[in-house]
Design goal:
The complex is a heterodimer. By secondary structure, chain A is of the alpha/beta class. In chain A, 38% of the residues lie in helices and 23% in strands. In chain A, the strands form two sheets. Chain A has an eight-stranded mixed beta sheet, with helices on both faces. In chain A, strands 2-1-4-5 form a four-stranded antiparallel beta sheet. Chain B is α/β, with parallel strands linked by helices. Chain B contains 15 helices and twelve strands. In chain B, the strands form two sheets. Chain B has an eight-stranded mixed beta sheet with strand order 6-7-8-3-9-10-12-11, sandwiched between helices. In chain B, helix 4 runs antiparallel to helix 6 (138-146), helix 9 crosses helix 10 and helix 10 runs parallel beside helix 11 (254-271). The chains are: A alpha/beta, B alpha/beta. The interface between A and B is large, with 46 and 40 residues. The structure holds adenosine-5'-triphosphate, adenosine-5'-diphosphate (ADP), iron/sulfur cluster (SF4) (2 copies) and magnesium ion (2 copies). One iron/sulfur cluster is lined by residues 316, 353, 355-356, 359, 361-362, 366, 371, 384-386 of chain B. Residues 20, 22, 27, 29, 47, 49-55, 65, 67-68, 284 of chain A line the site of adenosine-5'-diphosphate.
């Protein structure tokens, strides 16, 4: 792979705005989100519930329900704006070029069809293989994702599999058409940690083998640290920080990111008392004016309450949307000094 | 003398606790199998401490909590509260006689006088009651447990409270917060007037970080974290001794979770609470617990003071569980044990050591014999023939 091709993103999301028109008002679920995904990398998207992670991924695949509307923006995949494609063109992308796996595999798997039928359906649709060939490929895929006795399991129904096995089956289905991008929305949140470890390892190994890019959506900073190359931190429908994974954890440049990192008890560090970000996640119908984090931010000033901070590059490759990074930096310095003392 | 004994008496002792659920099938709803949700566990909780109970989904954590609170009758085993056997109050009335016979009377009848000293503390106490207070009269002994049964059950319910996982479904949506919290005050007749009840509710709301005015609102008006505070207020208004927190922070966002954990720690100090803190999340368990019990498929596999457990876990399952947790630090490279396979079903748990099909160091004996939970290091009990080998 040349340096140049590494620099061409395979997917570009530009200023995406997705709103829901509900009875209670307009939910600005995603409000001006931009990012790129490069070939073979894993982009992590992290944030608390309701910050717009799932809506972002559903927008990419144009899978929103009737209340949801993409207001503006572009989603450029291999030079084409997905938002301008017809529904039939989009169907060729979905599952074939860009595949998705969900938190709860039962919502994506059809309970009345066998695992094999569901994997084969995608293979036959996108690759034009015969039924026998498709079945063989389905069995191969199940074996590849570590399902024991795949010849037998291929004829089982989703409810006959454990949670971990179902997630494996869904990965098999997603990868059967060799997509360039796999969107994984909280793929391990519903699983036990020992099973989560298996699935994460499987995803890493398959990524090496297939070379696909992964968009890894999670609320778990541990999973982010383990899986991602670059990270997008979202808060209340916006990207607040964007950096390489090492840089993000080493030099967090947004108060929200820093607060999140301090809020998790870690196995390797002993705390007297946990840090807690004050207040609650704002309701999507009433996001605060100015910086949306100002109601919970210890560095907030009047400027934050009235003017929205833009997402700007604050050091090479590191983007943050905050008016007072200097204040954060001195707080981080004090904290680190305390820790090393 | 009695002073020191009291100090060492755990607040709660659980002995060989078993809870099996029947699985029924067919038109006659015949029992076709049993789910061995909890299958013989022993542990103690001391006053003022937090015992963390950790394990993967379905290993029996909730079942233990529900059984201790009398919400599921135990299948077998005993529960002691401050040395007093409360099992008769957890069981339906018609089962008490056979429970007492099996647990005490039959044993005592075969007892020589000099063997009394060797009995475990809980049994010794009841041997004295049986022989001295009731002069070895089984009928009198049994009757003493049946007297004032309702009152005793009610008093017990006051001492032990539970906070549930789901802040959405555990609060009645049609009740105002004030009534959700105040209901227990009415049941236990703790307030002599409407004003006093109102004041009690207002006070506890404030203690959990909410405004007293919230008493007039309904659950749907609150966020997840606020609802969890309401659940905590409801548990604490009766001034309980023991609080079982079952995944109390698991449904919450990270930033809200740490608020609730801090609140629970503050309230523990203020009200001298004892916690049984149930969670599947080892990092939360590590933060909040004094001692930790690790469960696998209905059994405790390791129980130890927190520091010991996290510094040197001795059971292969504990070691694997710890290594499976992703650490939020990309620089942190650790060696990871990835367990093979799924957690087996508690309907047909594996023979011998239940962990043997997934254990990286299992030997021949492991599928044949069940390892007992034994003290390996001071205060650290482990159920493994090769404890410490993977550490
Ligand atoms: N009322 C019931 N009837 C039948 N089986 C039950 C019942 N309650 C629990 N079980 C079974 O008992 C086992 C232990 O369940 P329990 O709810 O105690 O697990 P847990 O450790 O709390 O799991 P989780 O982490 O998922 O909450 C499981 O196999 C469960 O399916
Ligand atoms: N189908 C929908 N109708 C109305 N609102 C929605 C819908 N889907 C999501 N939302 C709202 O959009 C916001 C972002 O949701 P989501 O992307 O699912 O968050 P998360 O980051 O947890 O994945 C939330 O406020 C959510 O309530
Ligand atoms: S812009 Fe202001 S309120 Fe927003 S994160 Fe920065 S300091 Fe806090
Ligand atoms: S007894 Fe055997 S199978 Fe069980 S944990 Fe120990 S080594 Fe592993
Ligand atoms: Mg989501
Ligand atoms: Mg449970």
């Amino acid at each position: 792979m040349s340096v140049l091709s590494e620099k061409t993103p395979i997917l570009q999301v530009k200023d995406l705005r997705t709103y829901f028109y509900t009875e209670d008002g307009v939910v600005k679920a995603v409000d001006g989100v931009s990012f790129e995904v490069y070939e073979g990398e894993t982009l992590g998207i992290v944030g608390e519930s309701g910050c717009g992670k799932s809506v972002t991924s559903l927008s990419i695949l144009r899978l929103l329900d009737e209340k949801g509307r993409i207001e503006s923006g572009e989603i450029i995949y291999k030079g084409k704006n997905l938002l301008e494609l017809s529904e039939s063109e989009m169907r060729k992308i979905r599952g074939n070029e860009i595949a998705m796996i969900f938190q709860e595999p039962m919502t994506a798997l059809n309970p009345v069809y066998t695992i094999g039928d569901q994997i084969m359906e995608a293979i036959i649709l996108h690759q034009g293989l015969s039924k026998d060939e498709a079945r063989k490929l389905a069995i191969d895929m199940l074996r590849k994702v570590g399902i024991p006795e795949p010849e037998k399991r291929v004829d089982e129904y989703p409810h006959e599999l454990s949670g971990g096995m179902r997630q494996r089956a869904m990965i098999a289905m997603a990868l059967s058409c060799n997509p360039s991008i796999l969107i994984a929305d909280e793929p391990t949140t519903a699983l036990d940690v020992t099973i989560q470890a298996q699935i994460l390892e499987l995803m890493q190994q398959l990524q090496k083998e297939y070379g696909m890019s992964i968009i890894m959506i999670t609320h778990d900073l541990g999973v982010i640290a383990e899986m991602s190359d670059r990270v997008l931190v979202m808060y209340a429908g916006k990207v607040v920080e964007h950096a390489s994974v090492r840089e993000l954890f080493k030099n967090p440049k947004h108060p929200y990111t820093w607060g999140l990192m301090n809020s998790i008890p870690r196995l390797d560090i002993e705390y007297e008392r946990l840090y807690a970000i004050p207040g609650t996640v704002p309701d999507a119908l009433h996001f605060p004016e100015g910086c949306r984090f100002h109601t919970r931010c210890e560095f907030a000033t009047d400027k934050c309450r009235s003017e929205e901070p833009p997402l700007v590059e604050v050091s090479p490759g590191h983007l943050s949307a905050c008016w007072h990074i200097d204040r954060l930096e001195s707080a981080v310095a004090v904290q680190r000094k305390g820790e090393s003392a | 003398m009695s002073q020191t004994i009291q100090k060492n008496t755990p607040m709660l002792s659980v002995r060989n606790l078993v809870k099996h659920f029947p699985i029924r099938a067919g038109i006659f709803k015949r029992i076709v199998a049993w789910v061995k949700a909890v299958d013989g566990v022993d542990f103690d909780i001391y006053e003022g401490e937090t015992l963390g109970l950790v394990g993967e989904s379905g290993c029996g954590k909730t079942t233990i909590g529900m059984t201790l609170l009398g919400l599921y009758p135990p299948t077998d085993g005993s529960v002691y509260f401050n040395g007093e056997d409360i099992t008769p109050y957890l069981l339906p009335g018609w089962k008490v006689r056979s429970y007492l016979k099996r647990t005490y009377i039959e044993k005592f009848k075969q007892l020589n006088h000099d063997e009394m000293e060797e009995l475990p503390d809980e049994l010794k106490h009841y041997a004295e009651v049986y022989f001295n207070d009731h002069k070895g009269d089984a009928g009198r002994f049994i009757r003493s447990f049946m007297e004032n049964r309702k009152e005793k059950q009610k008093a017990l319910r006051r001492k032990m409270q539970i906070v549930f996982q789901d802040p959405y479904s555990s609060l009645n949506p049609r009740m105002r917060i004030g009534n959700i919290i105040g209901e227990a005050v009415d049941v236990h007749r703790l307030a002599s007037s409407k004003e006093e009840r109102q004041k009690m509710v207002a006070d506890i709301l404030q203690k959990v970080g909410l405004y007293p005015e919230y008493a007039m609102r309904y659950p749907h008006e609150f966020s997840g974290g606020q609802r969890q505070r309401i659940g905590i207020a409801r548990a604490l208004i009766l001034n309980p001794k023991l609080v079982v927190a079952d995944e109390a922070v698991s449904a919450l966002d990270v930033s809200i979770r740490s608020q609730i954990l801090n609140l629970m720690e503050d309230l523990q100090k203020e009200f001298q609470l004892t916690y049984l803190f149930i969670s599947h999340d080892l990092s939360v368990i590590k933060h909040i617990s004094d001692r930790v019990a690790v469960m696998y498929l209905g059994k405790i596999v390791e129980i130890a003071p927190k520091k010991k457990l996290f510094e040197r876990p001795l059971h292969p399952y504990t070691v694997s569980l710890m290594s499976a947790i992703p650490i939020p630090d990309p620089e942190h490279k650790k060696k990871r044990v990835i367990l093979k396979g799924d957690v087996p079903s508690p309907i047909n748990p594996p023979s011998g050591c239940r962990f043997h099909p997934r254990c990286p160091i299992a030997r021949e004996i492991c599928s044949r014999e069940e390892p007992p939970l034994q003290e390996v290091e001071e205060g650290q009990k482990v159920a493994c023939f090769f404890a410490g080998e993977m550490s």
